[in-house]
Every structure is written in C-alpha cells, then in structure tokens.
Amino acid sequence: MEQVLLRYIPNVVDNRLELVESVGETIIMVSISGIISLILGTVIGVLLVVTKEGNILENDTINGIIGKVINFFRSIPFIILIGALIPLTRLIVGSAIGTRGAIVPLIFGTVPFFSRQIETALLEVDRGVIEAAQAMGSGPLDIVFRVYLREGLPGIVRGITLTLISLIGLSAMAGAIGGGGLGDFAIRYGYQRFQMDITYVTIVIILIFVSIIQGVGNFILKRIEH
Amino acid sequence: MIEIIGATKIFDNGKAKIQAIKDVSLKINKGEIHGIIGYSGAGKSTLIRCINLLERPTQGKILFKGEDLTSLRERELRDRRKKMGMIFQHFNLFNSRNVYKNVAYPLKGARLSREEERERVLELLELVGLEDRIKAYPSELSGGQKQRVAIARALANNPEVLLCDEATSALDPKTTDSILELLRELKNKLNLTIVLITHEMAVIKKICDKVSVMEDGQIIEEGEVTQIFTRPIHETTREFVDTITNRSRIYEILNGKENIFNIGAGDVLARVVYMGDSTAEALLSKGSRRYGIDASILYGNIEVLGDTPTGEMIILLSGEDENIRGFIDYFRGKGLIVEVLDHGAGTSEVHTQCC
Predict the structure, then answer these.
(1) CA distance B243 to chain A (A)
(2) Hey, CA dihedral for B42, B23, B165, B54, is it positive or negative?
(3) Would you say A190 and A199 are in contact if contact means Cβ atoms under 8 Å apart?
C-alpha cells in the first residue's frame, strides 16, 4: 500500500501532515465564515424582500440602499476584494493573513451572494399565502418567521447548498494570499513547485467536500419538500 | 355588520393612476350572504380586500360592527381581522404544513393549551368533513379538499364574517356545488355573515340572499337575488342572468322578423314572472278556463333562488280582447308580473292598456 502511494503521490505522502492541517484549516474557514454569512445573509435577504414595493414593510429607501450595496460587493472580483479589505480585516481580527485573516473577506464575498439566494427563495413564496396570513391577523414578525422562512425553506436550503459550495471555492482563493487551507497548500506545492500529485489530491478532497454538502442538501430537501 | 361608505381605491404605479373602485357604498347585514358579481377588472376583488383592509381604500370608511377600521392602529386592525375569515380562489394554504398545522396556524395567538388546540382543530376539520386527512399535505389534496381546509382555517378564531374571494372559481361545477352547500350550512350553524365575489351567476343563484352587480369600479345594481333575477334592469345584469337561462335566445327569436309562433290577429304575446307561493297554483289552467281563452306556453323556466322558486314564462294568449285583458288582470291580481311583448294586428288596445 505504502509502495503504491509513494510511487503515485510521493509529494503528498511527504507532506501528509501539512495536508491534514490544510484540510482542517479549510473546514474551519468555511464553517466560521459560512455560519456568519448565512446568518447575515438571511437577515439582509429578508430585509430585501419585505421592504420591496407592495410587500409587508415596503420601504423604497432601505430597499434601494441594500440592493446597491449588494451589487457593489458582488461586482468586485474576490481576489481584489481580499486586497481591498486588508485594513478592515486588520481592524476586525487583528491580522490580514492566515486563516483568521481570510474569514473577513470570505464573509464579505459570501453575504451578498447568499442574500440574493435568500431573496430568490423568499420571492418564490406565493403572494397569496402572505395575503392569507395577513387576513388571519398575522403581523410582520409572524409573517417573516412563520410564513416566509418556513414556506421558503426548500429554496433556502438550495441557496445554502449553493453558497457553501461557492464558499469552498472562495476559501481556496483566499489561500492564495496566505490564508492557509487547501488552496494555499495546492498553490504552494502543486503550482509553484510543479508537484502535480498534490494538485490532483487537493482536487479530489475538495470534490469530496462538495459532494458531501450537495448530498446533505439533497437529503434535507427530500424531507422538507411536500 | 359591514358598511362600506364612499370607498375609492386608486392604484398609482408612478406612470398611471387606475381607479379600481369609485365611491362605492354598500351595506351588508348580519346573517346574510351577499354576493358581488362582475366581470374581470370590475373591481370586485379590490372591494372585498377593502373590507379587511388588505387594500386600504384611498378614500372612504369601512365600518365593521359600527367601528371604522381605517382609523385603527395596525395592532388593533390585526385583532379585528381575526373576526373576519377569508378564503381565496387559489386556497393559499401553507404547502410546508399539513392539514392539521394549516388549521392550527391562526390559533397561535389564542393562548390555547396543546390539548385545547387539538380539540379545536379537530372540531373545525369535522365541520368541513376532513377529519380523516389531518396528516395530509396540501399537495396531496384535491381542489375541493384544499378549499375545505382553507375554510376550516378561516373559521379557526370564530369569525363573524367570512369573505370569499372567488372561492369556487378554480373548482369544477360539482365541487363548486359541494363547497357552496358547505358555506350555506356553516352560515346557518355558526350564524355567519358571508360576502362572496364571483363571476358566475350560478353561484349567486345557489346561495346568495342579496347581490350587487359591479362594473367599472362601481355598483350598478343591487338588491334581493329574486328581484335581480326576475327584473334585471342594467344591461350587464341582464347578461349575467342570461348566462344561466335561455332567456336571451327566446328574445332573439321574438325579435326576429319571422312570425314563427304564428301570432294571429287578436293574439297577445306576454311574459309572465312569478315567484314564491304563486308557483304552486295552477294559475294558467284556472285562468284560461275562467276567461275562456287559449294560453300556450312558448318558453318556461323555473329557478330556485336560495329557497324561493321563481319562474318565467312566455305565453301566447288567443281569445277575445276583453277576456285576454281579464286574464292578465287576474294574473296581476295574484301578484304575478305580466308584460305584453307583442300582439297581433287589431289588438293595439290591449297593448296600450297593459303596458
């Protein structure tokens, strides 16, 4: 077994401790920035929907501002966003490099995307159902928590799946500027030292991550969609 | 129970202003089923939404049990809405919740224990005949069943009013009948006041006590259903009445030039409308015997409006002028409406006297 591994992926075997560490870093980066992004994105997405024209808390000003800020951040390529956020990142987490330094840009890169996912999911909720809830005397909070977030759940789960997968991609990019994790690992060894086996193994590991996320997402969808 | 006073609703999308309802006033009494009929775009949907302020009228007042809803705060308004159930054309059930949870939704603010809630939900589902489907999701139900769940949900907080927004328009005729039957039954059992909007005259005929006809944002005709059916005044109202009778066809024939009914000299063609008790009497044969004239029925139709049978006939009377006049007076004396439509040559006297 060891012979086989040494023959086909010698560099991976040599750097196996660092590989394990990178996997751990990726998991940490994705989980922390993922959780924070999902919470912030949900809040912003809900605000975006309820303040829309004709909706329960219609407010053109707030809606306009949120929409423009989202578009602004979404239009900046992530690799540039990382650089642009360095001062803010230092201010918030005390360092602009390493896993810790990657979390802030990851959040800024993910929240706008996820907010739009939430928006799409909630807009799929039938307007008539909202109307029915209003007719039954439900207030805005009830409508958000008991109708929008509940009726829109399948769309939200789809959005979460999509967002987490894209977050893994972003986390690899953050690695390129010293953020640690699998991306960093693959670039340092696979790209800069032409150790192609490291690149391939990294791809396989990321593929496994993506499959797990998609699988869990599909499983949850199956259970909640009626 | 409900009084709409001078309600106007203007939709302003920035480019154009659309007046959906124009200065509409309407009074709906406790315990009646009031139908609002109109073509698409007549403003009836906006009007019913103004009653529970899902649409806030641009001008005018909405009184519910004497209280002006437009002057209430949000929170108070939400409380009042619980006393007005509403059902919709597309049912608007929560797809993520099963039947039980759908019906339990509006009970959240009622401070019921789990046991009490269960009892209430089961009671409601029994009322609509769906107690065996509590675990089903809306996607597993037929249209009629969905509307029954929606009705149970709308009644959860013991409302006094039920607003029905095209509640049967998405259902087939048989299911429509069963839902209407249920509504009438619930009205009697729970002492409900029902406001329903529809574009089908058959719905009005089946359960309404009163009807308002809407066109172009205004109520153009209003009254007891029996009255609107037997004596529609406005053109649109006639069109609606025609949709469920053959009346228009017979008039088309009558207006045609050919004398297909062989109206001879001295004959009189008359339209007779009767309702309620008079339908039971054998007036036609009694009358023709008494006055010695012949009466033949060219067209006849009996409708049961709510619980009142009403009929309409077009009859051809032939006999002596005087006797025909006597016959017509006899009918009128019995409370029937007689309208002379046409007459053969030489009977102009009857024509002028009768009409």
Answers:
(1) 30
(2) positive
(3) yes
Classified as helix, coil or strand, B17 is strand
User: Residue A141: is it exposed, middle or buried by C-beta count within 10 angstroms (0-12/13-18/19+)?
Assistant: exposed
Share of chain A above pLDDT 70, in %: 100
Contacts of B250 (CB under 8 A, 6+ apart): B298, B299, B314
With CB atoms and an 8 Å threshold, state whether A153 touches B96: yes
Chain A hits for B79, CB-CB cut-off 8 Å, are 137
Q: Give pLDDT, residue B163.
A: 97
Does this model's pTM top 0.90? My answer is no
All CATH 3.30.70.260 domain ranges of chain B, comma separated, are: 247-354
Class of the B2-233 domain?
alpha beta
Backbone angles phi, psi at B279, to 5 degrees: -65, -25
Q: Are B165 and B197 in contact (CB under 8 A)?
A: yes
Domains and CATH numbers, chain A: 2-224 (1.10.3720.10)
Is residue A122 within 8 Å of A114, Cβ to Cβ?
no
Residue type, A62: I
Contacts of B140 in chain A (CB under 8 A): 226
Q: What percentage of residues in chain A have a pLDDT greater than 90?
A: 77
Q: What is the pLDDT of residue B346?
A: 46
Tell whether domain B247-354 is in CATH 3.30.70.260. yes
| Interior/surface letters A149-186, b for 16+ CB within 10 angstroms, e for the rest | bbbbbbbbbbbbbbbbbbbbebbbbbbbbbbbbbbbbb
Q: Which two tokens stand for residue B121?
A: 């939900």
Average of pLDDT values for B74-93? 95
DSSP A77-103: -HHHHHHHTHHHHHHHHS-SSHHHHHH
